[in-house]
Design goal:
CATH superfamily of the largest domain in chain A: P-loop containing nucleotide triphosphate hydrolases
Number of strands of chain A: 13
Strand content of chain A: 15-25%
Largest interface: A-B, 57 and 58 residues
Number of domains of chain A: 3
Oligomer: homodimer
CATH architecture of the largest domain in chain A: 3-Layer(aba) Sandwich
Radius of gyration of chain A: 29 Å
Order of helices and strands of chain A: EEHEEEEHEHHHHHEHEEHHEHEEHHHH
Structural class of chain A: alpha/beta
Largest sheet of chain A: 7 strands, mixed
Helix content of chain A: 40-55%
Strand order of the largest sheet of chain A: 3-4-5-6-2-1-7
Shape of chain A: flat
Number of helices of chain A: 15
Distance between the termini of chain A: 11 Å
């Protein structure tokens, strides 16, 4: 990944390696621009002499050789994508070569030598957007799709790429446009004292739009969490077995996701994937022993971590609990359960050190408690299930979730404008002034799908893509 | 890269990710086996409803969706390769998906779920060999091609993959077969006392074959060196500037290869690529100051390193040389120049500390001496040129070079057999006994291209391939 500003659209020929960096059986160099085929044929020689630029068909593979400095560089397959039936919407060519790092780079260099230019990050997708092959939200989803590391993140990205989110925004815009038309109509005839729709009706319409905007905006919390991994804080007093529990969960994870090699566990030490959801464990070892948890939350850093968490695992040593510590625990519990954005799960650890749950702890059974032995790895799967179930319950199925902070900002701004419109109605502000804020809301919604945009916004978005996409 | 034994050939459906591991714009999952298309179509749904298993054409791309658990996993391009027009010679399918690690693995898993089996390392190429799409030496060149990191290594691999080496072996075998026929003929009529070819003629023929075998065998030194990097030992007394010189060369290299990003400099610290040749610098810092270089060579370890080197850079501090040290140096020089497998280059360093070469050093000008200032990076390009020129002069252009130790062993064995044949003639051994050794030589040559082979040999060769090739 590199950052650079893509330039405004022109159809010069760009090229880049499109497959992941490194060595593999096959690699692909991608070319796009109106002279793609002509450029490729300057170094590609088909095996069959009957094939020429004029006879090459779109979406067909041709076997041949790439020449560099008069010698065969590689035996390759060439595919031509005739505009507009390509990813970018332009004429495009893909050359599939042997996946040696040397061959990949030499092939790219050869193509650059015969007239192509190295593509900027995301430039292929930028062209796809500029050619109307996809809107801006869909283009952003392409980057999310490529970066997705869990099933949940992948599902959001693929839905968004396939236009689910864009459709929702489009529906909202349509409603707002209708609303604006009604307003304009009222404005046109305002001097004639005709009231086409009374303000109560306007307010009803507005509330409907507002409700949807609020819903979308609020979905960002979950969307962002699913995309980046659900933050889970493991808290509790020292020596209750927090680290052992974390290790036990991580081991469990290895088994669960063993069919998907290469997950990112090594990169972010404490991120694991359970049933397609990525969980990001947050260390809160800073809790002091001598004071209660609420007091500990006063310690700024730990508080922040707990604040960021969506799920809190409160670990206790069940084998050493008495009535006092039990009361304290229940008190903590109550302080948490009313926070609608968090789930508080009690992890009663060290069940291996007791035979049954004593009477004074029975109350725990009414709470959401998982009894485990972290040391012996007993019931860790129940804890994993509990974590997953909470996320499943929070996830609105296939509903659209906002997971991009740019979209979130735009929705927030649109909602602010709608709130101003609402206040305008309440305060009997003249219709023409109200209409300005409606247009402002439309502008913000339009910025999500790219109906309104700027080179700077495009530069920011596509500069974060990888080269070759 | 993983190691495992490919099983003997059957045409069950195998699948693997073929592009390099990691994240990129595009990744490819490859499927091969007689049910490839049927298997792929269990999870792939073409966008156009008119396309079905019966109407899908070979070498044509189809846009569609892959479904997993009833949901769209990705939008992909599918290509069908109808047997025998595929890499493996079997029916094959390639699915090009978005290059997210999650998508790649999920797509592969989906294909495995609908009936394919995970391919062993090199199993696609093994099938290509077993189906007669390439011989064994060509198959081995595929692995070399993928692993090639320098232009020289790449050139050898591509020539071998395209059959250059196999052709040479085939010519040699043909000559040997002719030779064997003549022998058999003599054998058939031996009781009739007819001499079809006299033994001198046989010896002439044999010498011709032998000469070619020796040439090929000896080319292994250069072939291996070009494949793995040319070992260069930088030697010399302490404080003459060896490390500074190495740093200067490495910097120079950065500039020279800047158009090819991602070379392996970081992996093997002191390997650099100059004009397409990979040089592997060997550290010989162990030379002691107080003794002369020949004595130092007695130190086993340093001696080994110098022994392995093909090029020796003997660095001296030219600014502090007197007649004695000059005489010593010339003495060292003479001990090296007669070694035909090595080149000895004098590097007269620290020219920045003197105005001109004094009279008593003029003799250096007759030797192969490069005058440099490592500190100021002066004339480092001349040194680089000298290194490259030596390799160029050693390289027999586009001639076939043996670069595989299995081939080298086979050639050595074939040559041994031919030597036995020759001795047989000299000692008037009966023709039928001589013929056995001729057949033995044929066997060894045949093992190179795989005319004769075994599951064990195939397992060894293809087990070293990457999965997906």
């Amino acid at each position: 990944m590199e950052s650079s500003q893509p330039v405004s659209y022109n159809s010069d020929t760009i090229a880049a390696v499109a497959t992941p960096p490194g060595m593999g059986a096959i690699a692909i160099v991608r070319i796009s621009g109106k002279n793609s085929l002509e450029t490729a044929l300057k170094c590609f020689k088909p095996k069959s002499s009957e094939i020429s630029q004029n006879t090459i068909q779109s979406h067909h593979l041709y076997f041949g050789e790439v020449y560099s400095e008069g010698k065969v560089l590689d035996e390759v397959l060439l595919t031509y994508f005739k505009a507009p039936h390509s990813y970018t919407g332009e004429d495009a060519v893909e050359i599939s070569c042997h996946g040696s790092e040397y061959v990949q780079q030499a092939l790219l260099q050869t193509i650059l030598d015969v007239g192509a230019r190295m593509a900027s990050p995301g430039e292929f997708t930028l062209r796809a957007f500029l050619n109307g092959k996809m809107d801006l939200a869909q283009a952003e989803a392409v980057a999310d799709l490529i970066a997705s590391e869990s099933k949940a993140a992948h599902r959001m990205a693929i839905n968004q790429m396939r236009g689910g989110f864009s459709e929702k925004i489009s529906e909202l815009r349509e409603k707002l446009v209708n609303f604006a038309s009604l307003l304009e109509l009222e404005l046109d005839f305002s001097e004639e004292d005709v009231e086409f729709a009374n303000r109560e009706q306007f307010i009803l319409l507005l509330n409907e739009i507002k409700k949807e905007l609020v819903g979308l905006k609020e979905s960002f919390v979950m969307g962002n969490v699913l995309k980046k991994g659900i933050p889970v804080a493991i808290i509790g007093k020292p020596n209750v077995g927090k680290s052992t529990l974390l290790n036990a969960i991580l081991n469990e994870e290895k088994a669960i996701v063993s069919e998907i090699p290469g997950t990112t566990r090594d990169a972010i030490e404490d991120t694991i994937t359970l049933e397609g959801y990525s969980f990001r464990f947050v260390d809160t070892a800073g809790l002091r022993d001598s004071t209660d948890i609420v007091e500990n939350m006063g310690i700024e850093k730990t508080y922040d971590k707990i604040e960021q968490a969506r799920l809190i695992l409160y670990v206790c040593d069940i084998s050493s609990m008495n009535k006092t510590s039990m009361a304290e625990l229940l008190n903590d519990y109550k302080s948490y359960i009313n926070n609608k954005n968090k789930h508080f799960i009690l992890v009663a650890n060290k069940i291996d050190q007791m035979e049954e749950v004593p009477g004074h702890l029975k109350e725990l059974l009414d709470l959401e408690t998982v009894f485990v032995s972290a040391k012996r790895k007993e019931n860790i799967h129940l804890l994993a299930e509990t974590l997953v179930n909470h996320v499943k319950n929070d996830s609105p199925g296939d509903d659209v979730l906002v997971n991009n902070s740019r979209h979130y900002e735009a929705l927030r701004n649109a909602l602010d404008s709608i709130n101003v419109v609402e206040q305008g109605f309440e305060n009997n502000i003249p219709t023409d002034l109200v209409a300005i804020d409606v247009r402002q809301a439309l502008y913000y919604l339009g910025s999500i799908t790219g109906e309104v945009t700027s080179d700077e916004i495009l530069g920011n978005i596509f500069g974060k893509f990888c080269i070759g996409k």
